[in-house]
UniProtKB/TrEMBL annotation:
This is 60S acidic ribosomal protein P0. One of its GO terms (biological process) is cytoplasmic translation. GO terms for cellular component: cytosolic large ribosomal subunit. GO terms for molecular function: large ribosomal subunit rRNA binding; structural constituent of ribosome. Residues 114-183 form the Large ribosomal subunit protein uL10-like insertion domain. Residues 305-316 have a biased composition (Acidic residues). Keywords: Ribonucleoprotein, Ribosomal protein. Ribosomal protein P0 is the functional equivalent of E.coli protein L10.
């Protein structure tokens, strides 16, 4: 006779398993498991088999085990998991790529009917067209103010109608109509709510960031840091080049306004005394920027295009018929 383990034995085994997983894995996906059936959950476990483990359980049990394990191990980072254990949630422990694991979990969604009392996760719109229902079923459409007409002995919806809005509870009339139409508007599966990585908790949207996105955000942050450093005159690596340039401009302005000078200022003073020199110095740069070729090159190019004059037969002392 096989004896079933008692509740206390189950709790001890669950606590031991959770603590072992916390020690072995540094990456955890906290997932919502609303309306996920046991068969669907088994399919997800099979799909993730290899480097990921799905662990479900009561929130009170998980919180207690996490808290006690943090105290025993001295790793208080585990306590960051406790605020995430709210509602019908589970944990996916993984050593794989977090983004790939999330995408794999998203594959196992199952269509579900709109049952009475459910909160709609999306808008439900009934498209126009033939429903295949006989005219005796028009009462369902009339209750929901859906415009219809009878076409070839069946009910046809004339215009698209927003039957249920996201966040609204499904009523009995909406549920009955969708069931008659054979529409399963909702789909359910494990949804990643938060990501735990070595003590750090962040939103799953972070997993969608590319290297280009990170570069743009880094550049934006660097620009803000530079602006702040310049505004409060606080030196930083980001603001140092700008500070040096601004300091050079100030020293140059003082040299121009006074008799004090230095080699770089001498050239500026010379240009200020004779602006024509500045125009001459800028001419080659302007020509290069506009794509104009130097005069010598243009002349040589014209000469290359000129073909030598043809020599007539008369100049050679004989004609073609001699």
């Amino acid at each position: 006779m096989v004896t079933k383990p008692s509740k206390s034995q189950k709790k001890i085994a669950y606590d031991k398993k959770l603590c072992e997983l916390l020690d072995q894995y540094s990456q955890i996906l906290v997932v919502a498991a609303d309306n996920v059936g046991s068969n669907q959950l088994q399919s997800i476990r099979s799909g993730l088999r290899g480097d990921s483990i799905v662990l479900m359980g009561k929130n009170t049990m998980m919180k207690r085990s996490v808290r006690l394990h943090a105290e025993r191990s001295g790793n208080m980072d585990y306590l960051n998991l406790i605020p995430l254990l709210v509602g019908n949630v589970g944990l996916i422990f993984t050593k794989g790529d977090l983004k790939e694991v999330r995408e794999e979990v998203g594959k196992y969604k199952v269509g579900a009917p709109a049952r009475v009392g459910l909160v709609a996760p999306i808008d439900v719109i009934v498209p126009p067209g033939n429903t295949g229902l006989d005219p005796s079923q028009t009462s369902f459409f009339q209750v929901l103010n859906i415009p219809t007409k009878i076409n070839k002995g069946t009910v046809e919806i004339i215009t698209p109608v927003e039957l249920i809005k996201k966040g609204d509870k499904v009523g009995s009339s909406e549920s009955a109509l969708l069931a008659k139409l054979g529409v399963r508007p909702f789909s359910y599966g494990l949804v990643v709510m938060s990501v735990y990585d070595s003590g750090t908790v962040f939103s799953p949207e972070v997993l969608d960031l590319t290297e280009e996105d990170l570069a743009v955000k880094f550049a934006t942050g660097l620009s803000m840091l530079t602006s702040l450093s310049l505004a409060i005159s606080y030196p930083s690596l980001a603001a140092a080049p700008h500070m040096f340039i601004n300091a050079y401009k100030n020293v140059l302005a003082v040299a121009v306004a006074t008799k004090y000078s230095f080699p770089q200022a001498d050239k500026v003073k010379e240009y200020l005394k004779d602006p024509a020199k500045f125009a001459v110095a800028m001419a080659p740069a302007a020509a290069a920027a506009s794509g104009a070729a130097p005069a010598g090159a243009a002349k040589a190019k014209v000469e290359e295009k000129e073909e030598p004059a043809e020599v007539s037969d008369d100049d050679m002392g004989f004609s073609l018929f001699d």
